[in-house]
């Protein structure tokens, strides 16, 4: 049976091999972490890969689809883009499309831009925008914070640039059934520690 | 290969790698395709009102009404990797308050299999054309363009603008009658 095979392997290992296995495990974990952090730097986004959690962008994206984001400053926010943003005070990111933008200073660099006196609380160079989910009938003002009518650059986690369907279902399953997540992690850890190759 | 478990394991691993290869193939064969087509937009009527606006620091803002026609043939964009096109008509202009404004007036989801030839006449805008201020009055240069977001089965999500735009001047006076 499987359990007996594992135990035989463990008994045959001496201390050096055990250390090697643990180091191997550590290598895998740190490589994964390096790749993730590297992606964060290249894309400029704090969360370069997100899973779609709601059906508000159907039929384009369904629950469980994976999105690749970038958030580079040189890429200005324009209408039609799919943005992933967080509302102040809420943890869950939302994936919707930009419906309207008003930008105080052009990112393209208007050569004749004069110093426009500040209107309201935004300063020159700032952008405010409104979003709406494709599958929703109304724009997102009902979702924003009380009294907030627009989103700003600081709320944006990233812009969706690429997309792979279905893969994120695993993440949703692991979130909805935490026991499943712990079981998977435990089994994986056990497997890597004990397996000899 | 002599237990159900190991057979199931290899079957699972194999199907996973095949699916990954197919997905990557879908992506790489259509990643560099040209996705723009010519578009004809015509505007038949422009009205301007000044109404109460609770989303900004001021009391009243400009609200524009545009009636438009769109003709486009998007047949050539659909291929094995295009799931849908999200079309949107946007108005772009600049005002005293804001250097760049972009407002989506109308949008439509076109799935693969739907009629790809657009021939719309006398369409009213779907979303309110509010300005952040009173910058529509007398604004001579509002550009309407039709763009689309190509949503693939797997791969890049490009935003493509159709070639062909129209520039609309807005009237100098507010419309006071209750017509639209």
Automatic annotation (TrEMBL), chain B:
GO aspect biological process, one term: signal peptide processing
Transmembrane segments: 12-32
UniProt xrefs under InterPro entries: SPC3
PROSITE patterns according to UniProt: PROKAR_LIPOPROTEIN
Keyword list, A-Z: Endoplasmic reticulum, Membrane, Signal-anchor, Transmembrane, Transmembrane helix
Chief location: endoplasmic reticulum
Family: Belongs to the SPCS3 family.
Protein's UniProt name: Signal peptidase complex subunit 3
Source organism of this protein record: Taeniopygia guttata
Taxonomic lineage from the root: Eukaryota, Metazoa, Chordata, Craniata, Vertebrata
């Amino acid at each position: 049976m499987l359990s007996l095979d594992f135990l035989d392997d463990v008994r045959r290992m001496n201390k050096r091999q055990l250390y090697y296995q643990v180091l191997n495990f550590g290598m895998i974990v740190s490589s994964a972490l390096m790749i993730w952090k590297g992606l964060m730097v290249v894309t400029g986004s704090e969360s370069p890969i997100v899973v779609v959690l709601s059906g508000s962008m159907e039929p384009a994206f369904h629950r469980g689809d994976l999105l690749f984001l970038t958030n580079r400053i040189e890429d200005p926010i324009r209408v039609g883009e799919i943005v992933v943003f967080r509302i102040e005070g809420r943890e869950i990111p939302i994936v919707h499309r930009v419906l309207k933008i008003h930008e105080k200073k052009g990112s393209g660099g208007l050569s004749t831009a004069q110093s426009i006196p500040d209107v309201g609380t935004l300063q020159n160079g700032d952008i405010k925008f409104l979003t709406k989910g494709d599958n929703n009938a109304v724009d997102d003002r009902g979702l924003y914070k009380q009294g907030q009518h627009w989103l700003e650059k600081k709320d944006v986690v990233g812009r969706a640039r690429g997309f792979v369907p279905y893969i994120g279902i695993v993440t949703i399953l692991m979130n909805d059934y935490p026991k499943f997540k712990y079981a998977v992690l435990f089994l994986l850890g056990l497997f890597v520690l004990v397996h000899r190759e | 290969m002599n237990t159900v478990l190991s057979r199931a394991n290899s079957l699972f691993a194999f199907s996973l790698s095949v699916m990954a290869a197919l997905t990557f193939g879908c992506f790489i064969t259509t990643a560099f395709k040209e996705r723009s087509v010519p578009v004809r937009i015509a505007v038949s009527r422009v009205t301007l009102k000044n109404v109460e606006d609770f989303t900004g620091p001021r009391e009243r803002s400009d609200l524009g009404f545009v009636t438009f026609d769109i003709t486009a043939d998007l047949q050539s964009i659909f291929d094995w990797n295009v799931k849908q096109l999200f079309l949107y008509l946007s108005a772009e202009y600049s005002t005293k308050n804001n250097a760049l404004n972009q407002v989506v007036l109308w949008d439509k989801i076109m799935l693969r299999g739907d009629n790809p030839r657009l021939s719309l006449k006398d369409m009213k805008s779907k979303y309110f054309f509010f300005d952040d201020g009173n910058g529509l009055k007398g604004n001579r240069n509002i550009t309407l363009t039709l763009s689309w977001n190509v949503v693939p089965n797997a791969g890049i999500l490009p935003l493509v603008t159709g070639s062909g735009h129209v520039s609309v001047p807005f009237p100098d006076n507010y419309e006071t009658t209750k017509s639209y």
